[in-house]
Every structure is written in C-alpha cells, then in structure tokens.
C-alpha cells in the first residue's frame, strides 16, 4: 500500500496513475530501465471534512494490481490509519467512485476500477 504520508526516494507516484517501486536508486535512466522496477497501478482515496480529519491526510494511494471491491478499499484505507476513528467516519459517509455515487449498493459487490478516485463525503450540516 502506498500512503500520501510515505517518505524518502524509495517510492514515486507518477502522473499517469502508476506507482514505481525500486530496490535501488541511482541514475534515473538506469532505474527506469533496470530489472528491479515493478509497475503497480493505484486507486486514489480522497477524504473530505470529518473523514479528512480522522485520516489526518487528504488522500491515500492504494497500490493495486487489479480492481478492488469498495469494501476492500475501505478496509485498506482504514488499515493505513490504525488507532483513528476513520472506520467509524467512513461508515457514515456517502461515496463517489469517479463521479458516480455508490449509493446504497452492497460495498462487497461494488467494483472499483484501477485508476479510480474514490471520495468519501461525510454528512454535511446546513444548506
């Protein structure tokens, strides 16, 4: 799993939605062409309002090799932030996958394609 809180030069998120993992960092050209490169795609998780506060970050990137269920996205997001209220907050959130609401569908049956952005929106007070 890749978190937006990761540090160092070990992992780099590419603009194409791919995450590049290498075992050694040297010459960039050698690194990109070397045998130690493993390309993994991501699902970006974006938190809003109370979810952002509970996670302590605005986004997380989940390294994936294929689609996940929405329930798996939630489990993996919560696992990135142990000891927080994130699980409770996400349970109360509405969810967008791309620009489409997940609605009341069973999260185990909702497929989240690789490269998607999953947004968690807590209930808002007021107008």
TrEMBL record:
<protein>
    <submittedName>
        <fullName>Unannotated protein</fullName>
    </submittedName>
</protein>
<dbReference type="InterPro" id="IPR016155">
    <property type="entry name" value="Mopterin_synth/thiamin_S_b"/>
</dbReference>
<dbReference type="InterPro" id="IPR012675">
    <property type="entry name" value="Beta-grasp_dom_sf"/>
</dbReference>
